[in-house]
Amino acid sequence: MRSTLAIEAACFLAAIGLVGCAGAPTDVADAVYRNGKIYTVDAAQPWVEAVAIKDGKFLVVGSNADVQAVTGDTTEVIELGGRMAMPGLIDVHVHPLGVANSWANLQIQNPTDAEAILEEVKAYAAANPDLPMIRGEAWNLGVFETDSPRKELLDEIVADRPVYLQSQTGHSAWANSKALEIAGITKDTPNGGKFVFDIDDKTGEPSGTVREFAMGAVEQALPPTNPEAYAPALKRVLDEFSSYGFTSLKVAEGAEAWVKGAGILESRGGLEMRLFPSWEWRSHYSPHTDAEQDELIASWHSFETDLISPRYVKMFYDGGIDSYTALLLEDYVGRPGFRGASHQPKETMLEKIAELNAQGIGVIVHVLGDGGGRELVDIFSQVRERNGDNGVPLHFSHA
């Protein structure tokens, strides 16, 4: 028989909606895990040797004898053999969708060797002659002079198709002339602030490295990865997460093709964890226009499934240190009087976050500079004052 303590604990947790109450003797578990070292994340009872589960909820948490009372002929019994078990891990800021996009395209294997990177691009282009573009990642900082690789290196390999290779930071990318042409980035394009691209000192032409919102211009000009090709790549990524014990991922990114690919994977029975994607809003990563992004955010319910809940929005308050687009409290070294700037005016961010929060949509806000961080804390405080603590997440990223 289970102890009175075990029954009381189960019923208490049932009262707050975490588990089912197993007080009745007719309860029979769907599954029992026993003979293990099970970490419960409960300070009052951190370690037990067995648990019983019914209808997806913990029925009994205790000893082998406790779970035996609810073990029936139909119960699946899993012998842990002294191994450790614990509740599934939840990652609250991760980029599996972007990684899957990378895995569905060119994965650079030697990111610290410029010649090796070029050879990989050449081989990939030759092996995929029908692809309308070459997309890949990631090359490391420190490989190219001033972290500014030139378009001519890629043009010599692929001149008739766009080539777009992201750096390891995700805040800069390397493009060939065709990609820049399709994106409409020329020497006459306004350059500065959050829209940054490197230029040739002699000609003033774009040299091949795009940063922040200039990356977005290229992304929006290039075709997205096909969701059908994307789904198996996402499966590989999520299987790796599963192998480490993750069961839910709060995804700090979201594009239509990616979320559709995840839906395809779920429809085929290949999605085995919960995903909470975040739609981009005025982001340099997004392949969508601002109007398209607003439509996606408004229609998030249409993408919701049993395992996918895209009820979040990813926003950028500032950029990165390497591109001088993070907002600092003090001047950048070597740039007297320059501290960067926020991607959007503070008031614009406040109004949008307050609007989304009132609609029950959570936000994940990227901020890297200490100046940006200070302003974002103030914004979140004002949103709470307006809307109250309504339980909708205000997520401060990269503290």
Overview of the structural elements:
By secondary structure, the protein is of the alpha/beta class. The chain has three domains: 84 residues, Urease, subunit C, domain 1; 117 residues, Diaminopimelate Epimerase, Chain A, domain 1 (Roll); 171 residues, Metal-dependent hydrolases (TIM Barrel), CATH 3.20.20. It has twelve helices and 20 strands. The strands form five sheets. A six-stranded mixed beta sheet has the order 9-10-11-12-14-13. Helix 3 packs across helix 8, helix 6 packs across helix 7 and helix 11 crosses helix 12. The radius of gyration is 25 Å and the shape is globular.
For the largest sheet, list the strands in their spatial order.
9-10-11-12-14-13
Largest sheet entry: 6 strands, mixed
Helix fraction bin:
25-40%
Query: What is the arithmetic mean of pLDDT?
Result: 90
Number of helices: 12
What would the CATH topology of the largest domain be?
Answer: TIM Barrel
- Using the CA coordinates, give the radius of gyration: 25 Å
Distance from N terminus to C terminus (CA atoms, Å) equals 49 Å
CATH class category name of the largest domain? Alpha Beta
**Annotated CATH architecture of the largest domain:** Alpha-Beta Barrel
Bin the strand percentage: 15-25%
- Gross morphology is globular
The helix/strand class is alpha/beta
Which residue ranges are poorly predicted, with pLDDT under 50 across at least 5 consecutive positions? 1-25
Q: State the CATH superfamily name of the largest domain.
A: Metal-dependent hydrolases
Give the strand tally: 20
Whole-number count of domains = 3
